[in-house]
Design a protein that fits this description.
The complex is a heterodimer of chains A (669) and B (314). Chain A is an alpha+beta fold and 669 residues long. Chain A contains eleven helices and 36 strands. In chain A, strand 30 and strand 31 form a beta hairpin. The longest helix of chain A has 22 residues. Chain A is globular and about 105 Å long. In chain B, helix 4 packs across helix 7. Classes of the chains: A alpha+beta (669), B mainly alpha (314). At the A-B interface, helix 1, strand 36 and helix 11 of A face helix 9, strand 3, helix 10, helix 11 and helix 12 of B.
Amino acid sequence: MHAPLRSLLTVLVLLAAALVSPAGDTAPDRCLAPYFVVKADRDGADRFPLKSTRVTAEIAGVIADVRVVQTYENRGPGVIEATYVFPASTRAAVHGLTMTVGGRRVVAKIKERGEARRTYEQAKAAGKTASLLEQERPNVFQMNLANILPGDVVEVELAYTELLVPAEGVYEWCYPTTVGPRYSNRAAATAAPDEQWVANPYLPAGSPAPAGFTLEARLVPGMPLQEVASPTHRVAIDFRNPAEATVQLSPDEVSPANRDFLLHYRLAGDAIAGGLVLDEDAADGGHFLLMLAPPPRPPVTMIPPRDFLFVVDVSGSMNGFPLATAKTLVRELAVQLRSQDRFNVLLFAGDSQVLAPASLPATPENVAAALELLERQQGGGGTELVAAMRRALALPATAGAARIVAVITDGYVDMEPELFELVRANLGRSSVFAFGIGTSVNRHLIEGLARAGRGEPFVVTDNALAASGAAAFRAMIEAPVLTGVQVDFGGLAVSEVAPLPVPDLFARRPVVLTGRYRGKPVGTITVGGRTGEKPWNVAVDVAGASRLTSPGIIGRLWARQRIAELADLQALALDEGRRQAIVALGIAHNLLTNYTSFVAVDEVVRRAPGEPVRTVAQPSVLPEGVSNLAVGGGEVATTPEPATVLLVFISAAAIGLALWRIRPVQQGV
Amino acid sequence: MSPDSHDAGPSRPNGTAGRFQMAERASVWIRGERRLNRDPKPCGFGYVSGRLALLAQSRAALLVGWALAGWPVWRWFGARLDDGSDEPWGIAALGLSLISLPWRGLRARGPPRWAGTTAAVVAVAVVGFGVWPPLVRAGLWMLALVGLLGGTGPWLARTGLLLLGLPVTATAEFFLGYPLRVAVAAGNAPVLRLLGWNVERRGAALQWAGETVLIDAPCSGIQMLWTGLAAASVLALAWRLGERASMALVGRAAGVVALANGLRCTVLFIAEVKLHPVPGWLHEGIGLVLFAAALGVICVAGARLRRETGGPAA
């Protein structure tokens, strides 16, 4: 065979091999992953159908009543279906959804998730405008809006209630604005439908927000306010009287929706609103909420030696401010350890490494070595938190010392159930504290980890707050406030009290209990426990409890708490009975859950049969401080080829020169 | 076979005469010979088949048939041009190759030189219509055009340009991009280690001292390869190189462009890890200089092949 023919054959074989090999790269090998939105305006579809989000909150006592209005508009030429993944507070009890289209207001119905999805799909196929709100995680929701016609403006309003629990005398209301990109190693092809949201489009870091965002909160705690501030946003605060204030997001904020909005306030004298509140939402009783001020923190000298294990996320999404904050935090904690304490450091991203195979004494040399190891980290790779936690919890603990595991991460992983199960399985051996870092932390993971490990969640959203956050975190974990909590309800007939057993208090948070009562509310509730080495007791007169004027709120909060507990158990092992219990609670209390969704259908058929519908996923904004590395690309150095136009011009010049030097032979074809 | 050879056949039994005549007419129709022009009947199967046979002898008519039957290809081609996924320069290559086609051959009578091959290619395209990806179908259709008109002159270079004129870069990037990127990274790592940097390759990324340089899709060299192959094809066409020389030139062009791309990545790695930082515009400049050098090698190789093979193709 001629040499050129052999060459050609070789090239053809290679081409064929290359064509065949991707066929073997089957879909199950591809993981669910967030991605950057790609400009594809071939059909001119409106790529950003969500035009604005308007948040209004009424915070009365310890309960926040929040309304979120999302306005969608289709400025493209064709009919679209809009989907939008957005966050909410982990404590949010979403109890209502209304859709307004063409002046018609439709109140959504709560239905079992599958039924709601079918109703939505039927309406979509029939050409009716419909909305579907699904819960993907307790703090991540997805809005689906079908048949938005060109020129349509559709308003969707969702309502939720949230219980605000103060820590160290400070009340915090958090409104998350964007969902951080999640890392997942689940295969895209086999992932469950409620996992698919992880493959969510993102705008590159620094891109302007495609939708407007306004926020207004009214504070009426029922007691004089001492201090109101937002550590995250510029706000205008108007005190109407000593016990009432309105807070409005400043119009100067350029990108207000790329980080959590936090509102902090204190009551005069660091008082705690609450006591016993009754919600008489049933004929023979109702629901109760008990919130009691905690005792003062005991001195550290009374606490036994501790063995700290710092589990630090050094993955790509931690690059920048979060990793810098993590370093600050570990430094602050490590240098203040007592001589009898021991410690270890585990760094993780795609894989993990430990400072030492076993915990080291907290000597200055060991602390310096730990800090040097941490300083070398740049942030990169995936977030294999489950494997890291498995390794961390398997590390030998120091005999006679209390093992405290501090997990420092932004929580951008999608393996919450496995993590919670792992931490639960190690209860009794370690107390797990989750420290969330980032402008838009995955609070579900942070709070779930803390709940599973009987610890406390802690979140730092800003570099400026890192030092004070670290100090507060250290103060929290070095000495529990209240242990061995016992509750005696006296003559009050109660049921389904949550949480039971009451967990130890590490932060100076109030003891909060919710439950059902039956019969006449009389008697005395006594709560007791130990603080340091001293006993602590407080008694509450039931007859003196305050009563809610609009019933149902505490019932919803109670149901939300109960659903959270059931969902935690459900994450460990799927159980049909538990699923049905969650569905029943969701439908009885009109609550959005993992198994119940809101669906609203406008009965007017608006799209002509056969007219195509394009699904547009509203891209999310990357949280402030999170680099493009968290999505996978953007900031890694590359070596791109020159522009094709230049290559073509150079080629034309070279060919021209060659032909000029060696003229082609003039001959007929 | 002479045009009149079927007139001198032996006599046949009456019962089979009709069938024999039909078969013979069909055979002649397939051969496209003019003999049936003498058919005295103004209508009927013989007349129609004769007219069709006449039409089939016209290459212009065959070309029109080719163009009409290829409507799915054209529709796909138009959509691909419109969706912006490929560089628009393929049109230039397509235009060049179309201009260079031996259109005068359309006036000739009788079957094309490669009628059998063309028929086979068309058959493969038609039979596998539902199986072939659109790009493969378009490639087969272009090969059919070469079969209809080609067979003379530097047909291989024309064919190459015709195929490069199809929207191939996005597909090549999809299927060949990653293997090429890995190959570039695998080639770069030992070179950089030889130069004294302990570079580690992870997939298509190069890592050194905490710095990562990714050989991503725009670094694969597909665009340089396409441009280099198109340039080699144009030279082979202009210098009317024969089949062997054309193949040799295209093969060398692929090799030298791949080498230039590898070298470009090596130099840019050194720049990107900030060993020797360079301004942004120089990144492109380095690539252009190396590509220009590769083009120089291609031109020299082409000129040498032209001399060695004794001039233009027949």
